[in-house]
Recover the amino acids of this structure.
C-alpha cells in the first residue's frame, strides 16, 4: 500500500499512522541507508552474526546488550559502537530513544527469547530472533502478537533458508529432478558437556530436539514444501551422570507429510552425530552433508529423464566461509525492513516448529513446550 | 546326551528314538561327511546359495525342487545331482526316502515359506529358510512347532550373522569401543518394478519392511544385543501406478531398546535407497555401508580412551566376493547338523522379527502379519 503525504498525515491525525508504517521508525523508509542492529547477548553465535553484519553493505552493528559491561565495551570499541549504545539487560528498554538502532538480534538462551523479543518490540525495534523461537508454544504466540501490536517485523534466524546449497537442494526437488520424494533421512546431534546451559531445561526448554533436531525438522519441511500431517517419536536418556537431570538425551522421530513423503530423523546430546539430510525420490537422491556454518556440500545422483537415462551426478561444495550465512541472513532481514516485506522466515515459521516439536514430544509420551 | 547302543535300542522300541536323535537321519552322525542340501525354488537367491555351497567343503547340493523340470534338469546336470533327486512342488514329500538329502534350503516367495518348511520337516529334513521367515506370526510359530515335532533343525537365513564385517561391528560395540550406544540409523530400500512378486501381498505378506526393512530391524537387534522395548512407525503409499495396490510403498520407524538406545530406520520400494547402518555411541561411531552380498565396509571413528585421546579411525573393506556369505551360512548350518548344535539364527530368531514387524505395522495403524 502506498499513501500520499496528505493521506499519511490524515492517518497520523487519526492515530493510525503506525499501523500502515512498514517499520518502527520512518528512517527505515530510506532504502539507501544501513540498517542498524543491536545485538542482545554476546555469546558464541553473536560473534558469527557480528562477523556476518560486518560483511554486509546494508547492515551495521549499532548497539549491544550484555550483562558484562567490560565485555560489551570491548566489542563496542572494535565495532565503532558508541558507549551510549551499550545497554544492560535491565535498561535495554531505553533503546526506544536510540534512532541508530532499527532492529535487534536476540542471541540469548532459548528461555529468554520471548522476554527480549517482546521488550524489543515494545521499544519499537524489529526483531531477528534465534531459533528455537521460544521454550513454549504460548511464548511464541505472545512474541508474534507483541511484534504485530508494535508494528515491527519479526524474523526467526533460520539461516539455511538463505543459504545457496540448501536453496539448490530445494530447487532440484521442485524441478522434479528426483521424481516424487519418498523418504528423507536426517540427523543432527553432538556430545554435550556437563554444565552447559542447553542441559538446563529452565534455560533451553528441552533436549537436543530444540537446539539441533530443529534443523532436521525444519529441513524436512522446506525440502518437501509441505507441512507435517503426523509424527511418531521415541525419547530416551541413557547417561545418568548429572547431564540429563532435566532434559532428555536422545530423540528419534518419523514425520508423515500429506503427499505421503516420510521422514526418519534423530538427534542426541549423547554422541557426536553426523549432521545431514538425504532425500530419496523415485528418480534419485540428493544429500547435503552438514547443517553447519560452512563446508556445506550437495551431492546428488538422479535420472530424471526416466529409466535408462544416464544418471546426473552432482558434487557441489559450497566454499563460502563462515560467517557468510549470517551476512545473507542479515541482508534478508534488512531488505525486509527497508522495503517493507515479510521475512521468508517470520515468527509464524518459528511458531510452527514449536507446535511440531510439541507434537513430537507428545508422540513420545512427553508433555513439553 | 550320549546314549549307548543298547539304551538307544530301548528307546527305539518305545518309539522315542526320534526325540533324542540330533538329526533326521543317523547318517548325520558322521562328522566327516558332507551334508546334502535340496534347494526348493530356483530363483535369483538360490543361485547365490548354490554358489555358496559349491565353495563349501562340508556341504553339497544333492536335490532340487522346481516347478520347471527343464530348468531343474539343467541345474542338476551342472551340479551332478541325479535326476532321481529332482522333485516338483507336488511330489517333493517323496524326498523323505532320499538319504542323500539331509536338509532343504527354502528360497521361495515369502508366502510359501511356511508350507515348504513344514512339508520338509515332515519329510524328515532339516530346514534352512530364507527371511522373512513367513507372512504371519502364526505361520512362523507353526514352522517352529513342525520342526520340533519332526526333530529337525530350523535355521533362518540371516546371512549377516555369519559375515565378518558385521561380526567385527558387533565385537567393537561389545568391547565398548564406542561407549554407550545412543542412536542407530539404518536404511534399506530399492525401486521395485510393476509385476514383481514382492508387490503382491498374497506372495510377499507386505511391503518393503518384510523384504529389506527386516535387515535394518535385525541389525539394530544384533548391534545392541538387545530386544526392542517399543516401536513407533509411519507408512505411506505415494505412487498410484498399479505397483502399490496391495502393499505399502514406504515405512519409517523408531525403535527403543531397554538400555535407552534408539533406532531411526526407513525402507522403501519407491526409491533406490542407500543400504547401511550407522551406530552413534558416546565415544564415537561406526558404519557398515551395505547389507549386500559383497562390498561391505566398516568405517569407524572413536576415542574409547576418553576425551582428548587420539581417535581410532577404521576403514576396513571386506573383499570377500559373493557368494562367500552363502558359504559361511551353509557351513554354519552344516556344522549345527553334524554336531547337533542349535543354529545362531534359529526359527525363534525369525519369529521375533515377525512379531516385531507386526508391532511396527500396528504402531503405524496397520493390521498385518
Amino acid at each position: 500500500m502506498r499513501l500520499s503525504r496528505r493521506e499519511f498525515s490524515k492517518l497520523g491525525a487519526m492515530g493510525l499512522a503506525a499501523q500502515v508504517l512498514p517499520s518502527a521508525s520512518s528512517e527505515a523508509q530510506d532504502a539507501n541507508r544501513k540498517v542498524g542492529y543491536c545485538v542482545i547477548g554476546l555469546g558464541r553465535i553473536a560473534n558469527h552474526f557480528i562477523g556476518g553484519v560486518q560483511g554486509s553493505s546494508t547492515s551495521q552493528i549499532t548497539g549491544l546488550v550484555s550483562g558484562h559491561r567490560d565485555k560489551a565495551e570491548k566489542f563496542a570499541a572494535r565495532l565503532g559502537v558508541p558507549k551510549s549504545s551499550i545497554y544492560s539487560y535491565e535498561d535495554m528498554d531505553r533503546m526506544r530513544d536510540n534512532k541508530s538502532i532499527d532492529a535487534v538480534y536476540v542471541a540469548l538462551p532459548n528461555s529468554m527469547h520471548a522476554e527480549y523479543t517482546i521488550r524489543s518490540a515494545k521499544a519499537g525495534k524489529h526483531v531477528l530472533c534465534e531459533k528455537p523461537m521460544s521454550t513454549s508454544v504460548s511464548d511464541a504466540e505472545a512474541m508474534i502478537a507483541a511484534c504485530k501490536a508494535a508494528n515491527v517485523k519479526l524474523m526467526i534466524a533460520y539461516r539455511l533458508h538463505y543459504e545457496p546449497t540448501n536453496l539448490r537442494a530445494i530447487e532440484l526437488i521442485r524441478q522434479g529432478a528426483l521424481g516424487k520424494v519418498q523418504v528423507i533421512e536426517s540427523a543432527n546431534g553432538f556430545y554435550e558437556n556437563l554444565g552447559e546451559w542447553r542441559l538446563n531445561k529452565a534455560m533451553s526448554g528441552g533436549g537436543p530436539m530444540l537446539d539441533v533436531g530443529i534443523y532436521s525438522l525444519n529441513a524436512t519441511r522446506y525440502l518437501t514444501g509441505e507441512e507435517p500431517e503426523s509424527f511418531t517419536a521415541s525419547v530416551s536418556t541413557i547417561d545418568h551422570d548429572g547431564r540429563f537431570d532435566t532434559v532428555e538425551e536422545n530423540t528419534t522421530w518419523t514425520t508423515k507429510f500429506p503427499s505421503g513423503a516420510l521422514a526418519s530423523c534423530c538427534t542426541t546430546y549423547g554422541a557426536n552425530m553426523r549432521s545431514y539430510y538425504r532425500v530419496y525420490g523415485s528418480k534419485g537422491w540428493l544429500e547435503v552433508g552438514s547443517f553447519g556454518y560452512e563446508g556445506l556440500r550437495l551431492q546428488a545422483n538422479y535420472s530424471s529423464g526416466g529409466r535408462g537415462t544416464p544418471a546426473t551426478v552432482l558434487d557441489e561444495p559450497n566454499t563460502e566461509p563462515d560467517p557468510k550465512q549470517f551476512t545473507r541472513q542479515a541482508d534478508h532481514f534488512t531488505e525486509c525492513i527497508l522495503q517493507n516485506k515479510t521475512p521468508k522466515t517470520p515468527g509464524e515459521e518459528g511458531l510452527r516448529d514449536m507446535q511440531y516439536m510439541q507434537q513430537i514430544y507428545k508422540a513420545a509420551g512427553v508433555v513439553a513446550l
